Amino acid sequence: MPTYQRYAIFYTPPPGDLADFGAHWLGWDLRSGTHVEQYDIPSLALATQAAQKYGFHATLKAPFNLVESASAADLLDAASVLASRHCAFEISLQLAPLGRILALRPTTKSTPLNALADACVKTFDRFRGPLLSKDIARRNPHRLSKRQREYLTDWGYPHVFQEFQFHMTLTRPVDGITATNLRTAAQKHLPQSALNISIDRITLVGEREDRHFDTISDFKLASSYGASLG
């Protein structure tokens, strides 16, 4: 397995309409680890510049440095066990803002989704190395609530547990006509049939030296065939 700078646990859609949309919207295919042709939409390249390197995903355990006492193989084992203890479930998505960010978000709250996210945060935290000062500064702690600052200190990320909001990022913060135009463009390119999805897997991803993430392995949740897609 290649050596990665950081690791994370994401939800990533399987190959199909939703994954294709996300790859061409961001210009990066998380599964193949390659650049792909981005939709020809005004302002899209700039609006997705920061999100592109992560690929199309929803975060379940935010990127972390691996503690020295652990290995990537340990992450694979932990992901396999965790996946075997959770059942797949379905959710519906909608285009909706998260603050000033355009994203795909669930139409309703989901108890299984929150439980899966909580389990990922807790399970993989033992593999997380100490936060560096630059990592803390990047989160702009002065803008966080007291609880978010506590989560950042204790769990390495402010948006966990009660602060968790499942979302698949499509843009950086945008306003005004740019926000309106990008939302209209997303509605045009996004197949409506792709908005009802099965959360049937977790994905271990790694950050390469070029700062882009790619897929290491998918792990199917317990109600689907097999424990791992490899």
In short:
This protein has about 230 residues and is α+β, with helices and mostly antiparallel strands.
How would you describe the overall organization of this protein?
- The protein has 230 residues and is an alpha+beta fold.
- The chain has a single domain (6-220), classed as Cyclic Phosphodiesterase, Chain: A.
- It is 33% helix and 23% strand.
- The chain is built from 8 helices and 10 strands.
- The protein has a 4-stranded antiparallel sheet. It has a 4-stranded antiparallel sheet with strand order 7-6-5-8, covered by helices on one side.
- Strand 9 (201-207) and strand 10 (213-220) form a beta hairpin.
- Helix 4 (72-84) packs antiparallel against helix 5.
- The radius of gyration is 17 Å and the shape is globular.
- The protein starts with 5 loop residues before the first strand and ends in a 10-residue tail after the last strand.
- Residues 224-230 have low confidence and may be disordered.
